[in-house]
Design a protein that fits this description.
7 helices, Cytochrome Bc1 Complex, Chain D, domain 2, mainly alpha, elongated
């Protein structure tokens, strides 16, 4: 049996201090790191800025905008514009069984149903085609113009509907208060 050298009191104290000092040193370093991270963050001292930041984080993802009437009336799109913006997605590729623009064979039976039936189907939707081609903002006039445009490109001779004449809602032109004051002198 081998004998170990005797442990002195000094060695024991050093071992004890090393065992206790190492975890204390690790804890001290972790605390310093957390405090450093906390101090590097900017502090929102202005309550208005903090409230604005909160409002920005919790605002709704989308908003609903209702169409107004009267002064902000939109100009009707032509049949060609509607086809190029909306209808071409399916009628340009034949997706979901849609007749391709220019395919007289596919359009022939549909054209035989008549213009009014085609417009009704386009407005209400038929088979895989959604109502109004998936765009609820299109007016009946725009739908009818698009149907006439596509059908005419595919062998029909439909007459596209004419937009109604622009209504003048005001009898007198817009006058600024300064112009009104100068005309009364």
């Amino acid at each position: 049996m081998q004998e170990r050298p005797p442990t002195t009191v000094g060695q024991f104290v050093l071992a004890l201090l090393g065992t206790l000092a190492m975890p204390a040193l690790v804890i001290f370093m972790l605390v310093k790191m957390v405090i450093g991270i906390q101090n590097s963050r900017p502090v929102d001292t202005d309550p208005a800025a903090a409230n604005a930041a909160v409002e920005a984080r919790i605002k709704p993802v989308g908003e609903v905008a209702m169409k107004g009437s009267g002064s902000d009336a939109q100009v009707a799109k032509s049949g060609e514009q509607v086809v190029k913006e909306i209808c071409i997605a399916c009628h340009g590729t034949g997706a979901l069984g849609a007749p391709k623009i220019g395919d007289n064979g596919a359009w022939g039976p549909r054209i035989a149903q008549g213009f009014d039936a085609l417009v009704k189907n386009a407005i209400n939707g038929i088979r895989a085609m959604p109502a109004r081609g998936g765009n609820p903002d299109l007016s009946d006039l725009e739908i009818a113009s698009a149907v006439a445009y596509m059908a005419n490109k595919s062998g029909a001779s439909f007459k596209a509907p004419e937009p109604p004449p622009a209504e003048s809602s005001k009898a007198e032109p817009d006058v600024t208060p300064a112009e009104a004051a100068s005309s009364q002198k």
